[in-house]
UniProtKB/TrEMBL annotation:
Gene3D superfamilies in UniProt: FAD/NAD(P)-binding domain (3.50.50.60), HI0933 insert domain-like (1.10.8.260), Translation factors (2.40.30.10)
Pfam families: HI0933_like, HI0933_like_1st
SUPFAM superfamilies cross-referenced by the UniProt entry: FAD/NAD(P)-binding domain, HI0933 insert domain-like
Protein name, as recorded: HI0933-like protein
RsdA/BaiN/AoA(So)-like insert domain location: 192-355
The species this protein was found in: Desulfuromonas acetoxidans (strain DSM 684 / 11070)
Amino acid sequence: MKKNKVIVVGAGAAGMMAAGQAALAGAETILIEKMRRPGLKLAITGKGRCNLTNSAEIPEFIGHFGRNGRFLRQSFHRFFNTELCDFFKKQGLKLTTERGGRVFPSDGKAQHVVTVMTDWLKQCGVKIIRDAPVDHLIVDDGVIRGVGYGSRKLLGDAVILATGGASYPATGSSGDGYALVEPLGHTIETIRPALVPLIAEPEICGRMDGLNLRNINASLYVGGKKAAQDFGELVFHKHGVTGPVILTLSLQAVDALRADKAVELVLDLKPALDDKKLDARLLRDFAKRNKEELSSILRGLLPREMVEVCLDLTGISPQRLGQDVTADERKRLRVWLKNFRLTVTDHRPFKEAIVTAGGIRLKEVDPRTMESRKVKGLYLIGELLDLQADTGGYNLQAAFSTGFVAGQSAAAVETT
């Protein structure tokens, strides 16, 4: 029997998994990558540590993808976090599960994951073509026949498109796939950056550039109404704010800004203390350190970088002695500590976004095989699809799972 010839476009997490699985299923497999090296984006994920997956169960996992998460149910039932961890352990990669169920390579090196994947592809017999940006798909009478790059063409029985979204374009993930499939009749839901830092009052946040706050509560207000909240870590940067809680809230902020709605962040810097307990704490500190200046006393409540900002925004003199703080000033401090408000005016560009929101409409892809419902033999996987979750390893698991299903499906496609 003639082997199927499978062409995989894009050597990211989804593409590498798809190529290896197609080869293991008996197909002659060619992986074509526009960059010089495979796995460039994978090598920088998780701040260079590569959050591979999460230990959460399938229902919780799907919930992190919002209303579109149900599309992944069949892929996850075929290849999920346990299978992914077993896969990497079999390749000799030790894994560690950290807070929140996040799974990382034990050595904390994302590049090690890329090396493991590329070594595995060699073992599977996958041929890799580098420095070859695909610029068109070859389709005849609704059936995929191959791909073209420059003046060359590569023919095959199935094509798996794994070109990624539009985030981190320097790694090769620059939105090429959308332009390839749109002429074929696929609908592209509006793409926009997700898991992206927000621009918020740079003149204030810039004074705290690099400050990392843990255990704070961040609420997102849209049009004056509370839209979402998250608890955890936040980082100030010269343009505004980032960190896990901000990234989680960012897509709602991006969509609200696109709709010209007012967006505001409200930070509770002391979530463990209600107003009454915080007021008692302030009274106690001011009484105990009554001869000290307020700028010094507040160091017991705030990081050094925040003290001056706090006093400027509340309009209280840093030289005020603890014994001289009035009830009104104490109230201003208490309100600020529980409701530090920042107006969000924009977001950082795609090159700083971890993932892309939007993408190929899911109704146009078969979730059982990842095959296009528009073109026979064309498979669409990973970040190209209108799927995105918050941080925690969810997006990479979706890439590996859809890649697994597509690779096996493409190897078994009936040729015409």
